[in-house]
Amino acid sequence: MAQKPHVLIFPFPVQGHINCMLKLAELLCCRGLHVTFLNSHHIHERLLCCTDIHYHFSQYPTFHFETISDGLPADHPRTGDRVVELFHAVNATTKPQFRDILTGLQFHSPNGRPALTCIIADGIMSFTVDVAKELHIPTILFRTVSASCFWAFLCVPKLLEAGELPFNGENDMDKLLSSVPGLERFRMRDLPSFCRTSNLADPGFQVVISETLQNLKADGLLLNTFEDLEESALSHIRTHIPKLYTVGPLHAHLKAREASSPALQQPSSSSLWKEDRSCMAWLDRKPLNSVIYVSFGSMTVLTRNQLFEFWHGLVNSGKPFLWVIRPKSVNADGDIPAELLEGTRKRGYMVGWAPQQEVLAHPAVGGFLTHSGWNSTLESICEGVPMICWPFYADQQVNSRLVGEVWKVGLDMKDTCERATVEKMIKDLMDVKRDEFILCAKEKAKLARKSVEQAGSSHCNLDRLIDDINMMNFAK
């Protein structure tokens, strides 16, 4: 009898990418596949410090961790404002190590694992495809952004050809794009943040474009989305990449599996910070749909002025708020105005990190002020929680436009965080326009749940992915 396939999963070493790719790894292990998860040393140490990850994955005898250097010193912040440094370090340092690891996994069986069948690598590390092709190993790339964002990346050459890029200043920010099908409802300010440059040699711009075009060389593409959510973008992507697997929301697959088998272990946290669970008891004491939850994710860095504008807006809204302020996420120190401390004492609760999926599922939470990271957006959609979006960088500008203009499940507040605007948007979300947002949000939540059910599109696509990996195994 043939051994089960062995898949190497290799994420880009930041929180959001680790998050969803670990969930994919667990789903593959649930189906009996062997999985080696290749982490950076830095990420792995953080996981061991902040989670029970090894204990959780011990229930899967076919799962193994391996580690590799990301090329940066331990004290590098690895935040969104310096992510290009991380990208260049990975390309310079990790690529030769990756070849050595692949060679070992391809030709022998460490710890009883079968030889390698295929690789599922992060789509912004295209060097994985080149190395794998040399060793004749099939590679499927995983883009951890929305389908709409990936389509926008893929269309940048057409936007350049049509003269809609490069960026020509503030006067063009609200002009609707007209040259590319599938982007008609997007403005210049809604394109990925890397497009906001007048210099086509800008390193961030060049990295994103070159990596996206390299994705076309892989044996397939994985996206953490579902058909009913991004049908238009997906249809356009398929004209370039027919072998497309939409398998999201990945966390919803695991949640559905847990609900159907209560004896299973709870899903494990993959957080790089210790979760402060005291916020759950605080939420328990709050009325239904009364709390605005605030988190700007794992990579956003706020200025002191931005911090205080958000803070004044939250306090002035009069709503209870739960605010995640990640360690080292604010670029300045100093005294805090007395009115903010008093307003927080009365109505607010602040933590360094929170169990976000549980928070969004809590009945007291009525809205989410978010950076519009794709994981956060999907988690909010799955719980039917309307959003106020303040995107920081990368794909987040696209996602906030989807939330506010396309799906109508919240408000897009990009490029401003004045206290009066923050206050007004919270009141609109939680009171004035609540009914219309809730109606749309609940409908999207229903579609998300349907997608991971037995005959749902994402469930079927996950089956198709596993069938294709099995075929690769037979073809070895």
UniProtKB/TrEMBL annotation:
Its EC number is 2.4.1.-. One of its GO terms (molecular function) is 7-deoxyloganetic acid glucosyltransferase activity. InterPro entries: Glyco_transf_N, UDP_glucos_trans, UDP_glycos_trans_CS. The keyword Metal-binding does not apply. One of its GO terms (biological process) is (-)-secologanin biosynthetic process. It holds the Pfam family Glyco_transf_N. Keywords: Glycosyltransferase, Transferase. Residues 7-154 form the Glycosyltransferase N-terminal domain. Belongs to the UDP-glycosyltransferase family. This is Glycosyltransferase. It comes from Coffea arabica (Arabian coffee).
